[in-house]
């Protein structure tokens, strides 16, 4: 499973430094690479990108 950034992303950048696998990239909105996203398993207790997102646009894919 992987996390997904929905279309209501405001591209604030809060999630970028939180990703331990550097799976998030910039674009018109931010995008998470499902091939490398591990939902922070082995790094944190919960996905850090969704924990810091100010608009709650990051969900499980």
Describe what you observe in this structure.
With 61 residues, the chain is mainly beta. It has a single domain (1-61), classed as Alpha-Beta Plaits, CATH 3.30.70. Helix content is 8%, strand content 16%. It has one helix and four strands, in the order E-E-E-H-E. Strand 2 and strand 3 form a beta hairpin. The N and C termini lie close together (7 Å). The mean pLDDT is 96.
What's the alpha carbon Rg, rounded to whole Å? 10 Å
Largest sheet: 2 strands, antiparallel
The secondary-structure element order is: EEEHE
* Tally of helical segments: 1
Classified by CATH, the class is Alpha Beta
Uncertain runs with pLDDT below 50, 5 residues or more? none
CATH architecture identity: 2-Layer Sandwich
- Sheet-strand content, in percent, reads 15-25%
Shape, principal axes of CA atoms: globular
End-to-end separation in angstroms reads: 7 Å
Here the CATH topology equals Alpha-Beta Plaits
Spatial order of the strands forming the largest sheet: 1-4
Structural class: mainly beta
How many structurally independent domains? 1
Arithmetic mean of pLDDT? 96
